[in-house]
Amino acid sequence: MEFKNGNVTVNIEGSPMAIGNSVYDLLMRLPGVIVTDGVISIQGKSGVKVLIDDRVQQLSGNQLMAILKSMSASSIQKIEILKNPPVKYDAAGNAGIINIVTKRVNVTGFSGSANFSNQQGFYGQQEGGVTLNYKAKKFTFFSGINVFNNGQRNVNHKQRALTDNGITTSFDEHSTIHESGPVANIFVGLDWYVDSMSTIGIRVEDIPGSTNNLRIGNDIISDNSLGYNRLDFNASVPNPWNYVYTNVNAEHKFDTMGTKLKFNGDFYSPYNDLYPGTFQNNYYTNGLTSLPPTDFKNSNTIHLNTYIGRLDFEKKIFKTISLEAGVKGSFNSMNSIYQLQNLDNTTGAYVTDTNYTNNFTYKDRILAAYVNLQKQIKKFSLQAGIRAENTNIQTLSVTSGITYKRDYSNLFPTASISYSKNDKHNFQVSFSRRIDRPDYNNFNPYRQFNGNLLSYNIGNPFLYPALTNNYEISHNYKGIVGASFSYARTTNDIFGYAIQNDVSKVAIGKVGNLHLFETYALSAFFQKDLVKWWTLSVSATGYYFKYTGSLDNIDYTRGAPSGYGNISNTINLPKGFKTEISGVYIAPWLGGSGQLKSRWAANFSIKKSFLKDKLNVSIGVNDIFFTLGIRNTIYIPGQSYKVDMTFDSRRFVIGATYNFGKVKIQQRDIKGNDEDKKRLGH
Questions:
Q1: Is 450 contained in some domain?
Q2: How many of the other CB atoms lie within 10 Å of CB of 286?
Q3: Residue 110 belongs to what H/E stretch?
């Protein structure tokens, strides 16, 4: 791990864990990073943007997780955790940025690599791919394909008890979810070196995929107030998608002192995302059918188009002063067609339910400009920048007639002062302001059912963006020991919560703006070669979260401490073997309207290289003791609501990578234009 400017870089290359595992497997081992139910947090704050080589991935939450699972960790050089990103990055993402940097080598010739891994939990997961590259004097050609086949089993247990008019009704729900489906990443690109000062490039990438979510379960009810005391349900929600991404880029160097101008044009079109689903609900009283079954199906067809242009200029004004400036424009449009149909038990035909069917459109335009200065004054390093963004959003629920229009401008300053007393001690103070815009899934007011009719989620078309001020002070000693203290203050926090319908007994997941969310965090790390053959890395963070405000006349003013820590031991064994033993611990955690209990995991892997280090083989076990399951108590006034979930976190892993050809090829570093796209849910 490397610590600089309040940010953390974790070097992946060479680690035994890098072979056979995916990037997703590595996330929970990063300092200060936590993944809970597909949501990534940094130092307790959600709203993290995930970039790959400075390009945000254009996928929704579950699809993003599928992409990260499809990426072999052996293709990764390092992962950057940017808690205070510079102003050249978009201001979106309250918690910061995780930038995944792939391996790059810049030499002439032909090269390629092949990798394959298999993970076995309750179901198997396979991942494999091939890259082929060629670099000549005037051009570089690069290409690759990687395929991941997902197999995952989740076991859920929900216990809910609510009281209405002095009568308490309890629900005891058990369900099993099987997630499966393939994901592919296919890319091809060409860089043309016009001359020694100018380069033009193009990259085309296609990411098709499909995930299928099968849920089977039952809900035992303590009384017959709903006309039944047992509900059996099953649901199938496949999600096929495909998006094509094209990047056109150019770079011109004006001199050898670092003066350069860079252009990037990104086009995400067409993007098609489908969510067809079928749901069956059967009602029983004391083992006998008490109500006619409820069968329905829904579909959500999403079409998205995105166009982004960006121009960046860099110059060293004086020997100790560097300037960066740029402009950017992004234009997004989305159309979601949601339809729900109920089965008529008499005719056997499906009939459209106009109460839930909806056509929802979303458009936004974001214009931005930034300038950043860096100056070195003896032992002080100063950095200051400001970014201006104008946002125009228009949404329309065609069916209900609900409209939302908003046009606003914001300034996002960043600043840091670093002082190096000597080669051993480094001190830094930093500040940044960031924004978290609601994505279109948050805006969309349609109902998304969670397997049965007793719970669903619904969007809010009147959300405001959340604004966060981040402050941090840190100290580093020789790169061995370090500590930092940070404070983050978020207004209009985008807050997920639950309410209940006392009559129908339905639990409703909603999203709103909570007045204030504050995070205090104290972090520390230690890393050192204890002996020649043993490297130890330890990091830990203690938090205090505080939520202030109310939603739907429910007071959510709450505060609680928490903590997170991980440890990694890399040990060099005789005859070229290398092993890694790592662990993670998460203390009880206050996450929005839920209180998660503590959990932990231990991991082990061993690596061996063959054929002059061209072939690397690794075997290991993740979550050896199967202790990474989620236990959550959700806060709803007048209701007890607990959720326990276990998933295939314990997995046996075997993997291999083989590098062929005389050399490897570097794909020219292209700065992506789409840091703001995660708020669209893609």
A1: no
A2: 9
A3: strand 109-120
The bridge status of strand 615-622 relative to strand 403-420 is unpaired
pLDDT class of 305 with cuts at 50, 70, 90: confident
What is the per-residue pLDDT across 510-524, written as a single tens digit (0 to 9) for each?
Answer: 999 999 999 999 999
Q: How far is CA 552 from CA 73, 500, 549, in A?
A: 44, 11, 11
3-state helix/strand/coil string of 577-606: EEEEEEEEEECCEEECCEEECCEEEEEEEE
Return the pLDDT at 395.
86
The whole-angstrom separation of Cα 101 and Cα 77 is 6
Domain that holds residue 634: 2-445+455-469+476-680
Q: Is position 673 within any domain?
A: yes
Gap between the Cα atoms of 560 and 548, Å rounded: 12
What residue type is assigned to position 11 of the chain? N
- Going from the C-alpha of 417 to that of each of 6, 430, 436, 488, the distances in angstroms are 10, 6, 26, 18
Compute the half-sphere exposure of residue 476: CA atoms within 13 Å on the CB side of its CA. Answer: 19
Does a structural domain hold residue 305? yes
Own/partner contacts of 259-263, CB < 8 Å, gap of 24 or more, are: 259/314, 259/315, 259/316, 260/313, 260/314, 261/311, 261/312, 261/313, 262/311, 262/312, 262/313, 262/314, 262/671, 263/309, 263/310, 263/311, 263/312
The predicted pLDDT at position 137 comes to 86
Return the bridge partners of 113, or none.
Answer: 131, 659
Write the CB contacts of 252 (distance below 8 Å, at least 6 apart in sequence): 197, 198, 260, 261
Residues 281 and 293 sit within 8 Å (Cβ to Cβ): yes
- Name the residue among 464, 465, 371, 466 with its Cα closest to residue 413: 371
> What digits encode the pLDDT tens for the residues 145-185?
989 898 999 999 999 998 878 888 999 999 999 999 998 98
Q: Let me know how long the chain is.
A: 682
Per residue in 57-75, pLDDT (tens digit) is: 656 666 777 778 777 777 7
Question: CA torsion angle for 486, 490, 494, 495 (degrees, to 10)?
Answer: 70
Q: How many domains does the chain have?
A: 1
Distance (Å) of CA 345 to CA 285, 296, 423: 20, 11, 78
For residue 340, is pLDDT > 90? no
pLDDT tens digits, one per residue of 36-48: 766 788 876 777 8
Side-chain-side CA neighbours of 252 within 13 Å: the count stands at: 4
Q: Alpha-carbon distance 1 to 30, whole Å?
A: 9
Please, which pLDDT band fits residue 679 given cuts at 50, 70 and 90?
A: very low
Q: Is residue 157 part of a domain?
A: yes
Closest CA to 275 of 215, 339, 349, 217: 339
Q: pLDDT tens across 460-513, in order?
A: 888 999 999 999 999 988 878 989 999 999 999 999 888 888 888 888 889 999
CB 608 within 8 A of CB 617: yes
CATH number at residue 251: 2.40.170.20
Least Cα distance to 336 among 305, 369, 360 occurs for: 360
Q: Strand, helix or coil at 533?
A: coil
> What are the angstrom distances between the C-alpha of 520 and each of 29, 412, 495?
21, 21, 18
